[in-house]
Amino acid sequence: MVALNDNNKMSKQTSGFDNYAFEKDSQEERNKQECVVEGPPEKENEPETSEGVLEEESKSEKSEISFLVVEVEQPDTRAVEMQSKQETSEGEIENEQKNSEKIPLGIVEKIRRLFIGFRKIEKVENLPERPENLSADGKAAELAKSPQVEISLEDPAEVENKSENTWKEGNGPERSEEGPVVAENNLDRSQTQRAQWGRGTEFLMSCIAMSVGLGNIWRFPFAAKKNGGGAFLIPYLIVLIVIGRPMYYMEMSIGQFTSKGNCKMFSKLSPMFRAIGYGQVIGAFSVATYYCSIMAVTLYYLFASFTSEFPWSTCNESWINYTEKNGEVCIDKNTNPFDQTLTKTISSSELFFSIVPSKSPFFRIDVLKQKDDISDGIGIPDLKLTLFLVLAWLITFILSVRGIKSSGKASYFLAIFPYVILIVLLIKALTLEGATDGILYFIETDWTKLLEAQVWYAAVTQCFFSLNVGFGTIIMLSSYNSFNHNINRDALIITTLDTFTSLLSGVTIFGILGSLAHEMNVEPSEVISHADGTSLAFISYPEAISKFTAVPWLFAIMFFFMLFILGLGSLQALQGTLNTAVKDAFPTIAMWKISACTATLCLLIGLLYMTPAGQYILDLADHFGGTFIIYTFAILEVIVICWLYGVENICIDIEFMTKKKVGIYWRVCWAILMPVLLILIYIYFIFTQKPLVYGDNKSYPIELQVFGWSILGIGVLQMFFWIGYYLYANRRFSAKEMLRRTFSTEHWGPDSKERTEEWKRYKEALIREREPIKGNWFKRKVAVLVGR
Predict the structure, then answer these.
(1) Which of 117, 446, 465, 580 has the fewest Cβ atoms within 10 Å of its own Cβ atom?
(2) Are 331 and 448 in a shared domain?
(3) InterPro entries, alphabetically (predicted)?
(4) pLDDT in tens, 298-326
(5) Is 108 annotated as a binding residue?
(6) Does residue 432 have a known ligand-binding role?
(7) How many Cα neighbours within 13 Å face the side chain of 326?
(8) How many domains does the chain have?
(9) What percent of the chain has pLDDT over 70?
(10) Domain that holds residue 19
(11) 355 and 390 together in one domain
(12) Is 668 annotated as a binding residue?
């Protein structure tokens, strides 16, 4: 039976659920609206007798009961409305097809629709309307299910305290059970509410600053030359198109859809999958600890560039034993190497090693204080490098002290300024003698390299570390976006700009090294074949700059400052991944406290890289933490998202979020190309592993080997821990139910409750449309790939 409160309380109640929100009306207007609904009109100037009052109350009760009964017994019209809307949309589609037949599409538009595949969805693809009995707090009171529903009307005093915000397309108020309605776009957010980028360009600039880093400057040019020169661009671009860009867009999408960092995002997808998020955080933490040590060395060179004479351009007496031991000859920059009065005959190769040695005395002795043998211990941290390490982390902490509110503002400078310096260096390189020879050597093509598996593996490695996919940083940055942000545009801009930057830096660096070869009167191959990685940034390039006749100190300052800014943009994103993981787990902790803790912890571990054995420990941490863990969990991420959760579900989520249909290019890459290629490359990576050595092919001490394997072990074994934990927690259920609960995705969805309800009904509507082809597995998979 239907239970009612007294008529006085009913007369003060708000009338229904109007547009899913409570509107602020005066008490008199609400009373007038209640009187209009199916009830008899009040009689004016009628004496209030007890019988009249009783009679009036009985009439009012009957009218209210009849109104509620009619409301309860009326059939559910949502299916009829959906069917009519579906017929209307089908009619519109037919008309659109007829019009498209009359007006032929151009070839550019056909290619865009095929590969980019984005078109606006009309009315969000038959998105069902919210039911009229849906309240403002997002909870549907299913009155139409049964006529025997007990309705308790709220007290008018509580109604007055309701929020007056209006729901509009998923950005409206979110009601929590413990507190009042809180608008998601309210600027006065508490510490427990997630921040958002102030502007969409802040997110774009932060992604550019993160992706365009040190790997573009010193890794890509020599990876390209080592693997076929100009021919390396073919496998690199193919990998970028089928793996790099689709994975970048996929991570952007799931981060923005859930508004969570990678740890919390994978936990929402399934409790067991949180191991993937934790593994990515461990990898990001490992990279952050040694990434800042490289920035400390960069600061060392930056401050050394302010001197009147570069310390690396002159010989030091303390280097004599070191150079003689390594068969090198140290020649002052003002010495003519072809002077006949020299007491030693110097070949061209010896001449190169004297000017740009593979083991530069200044870099190895003065800066790193490097040891040849670390079997007796790693030594103590160098004081100068430690101070520069503290300075680097202090700057990083200042930029991230307020989370994205501070880092977003700094992203403009971090993303744009390196391009200013890079363009200035390019112009300088093109004006140097011999630069053309170096550039031609860079683009020289060896087509036979395309048949080697190592070249394709190098292309994937470069793509991963250049775009920073698989680290969790992209998920973290996109989680602070507004729900409807255009991430497809940003993914296209960032991946294209990253490739352009790699090519630009390659031309610049090979041009300057070609000038150095001209200065030495040798072939570019003799100079460039000995330069790689850190030796490029801290040995070859500084030596080439010291040969400049006009203001060499200015170009040295610009170069090392550019390296520091590039490293700072990437390091800030890595630390942001750590901060976001902690913030999502403990939302009440202030961001500056989290940032201070992560920076301090990374600083303490970074002291290991400031020791005489620091370079060897860095290689160890990069191999196990920066490569092995990242590859492992990147493949697990792709398998879980693309195969277990499914491409169809991903596309539905993106369509609901962006109001645009996902094209066939993304679907094919996510379903087939990206997972298959990554698995094949990972297998190749495992079977081609060689024992890690340092120096002159010396094996690492057992202590450092345990340190390296511990990094990998912590990352991988915690995955099995979570599997066992959730299986044990659900042990009282049957095997089938146990697996269902362990891999349940019931918590997956947008961060807003109202938006989650909207998304579920939208998803159900699309799935019902595809019911006719559900019986045929092959046809259904093809329909998913083509987007039907």
Answers:
(1) 446
(2) no
(3) Na/ntran_symport, SNS_sf
(4) 999 999 999 878 888 777 766 665 555 55
(5) no
(6) no
(7) 20
(8) 3
(9) 67
(10) 1-74
(11) no
(12) no
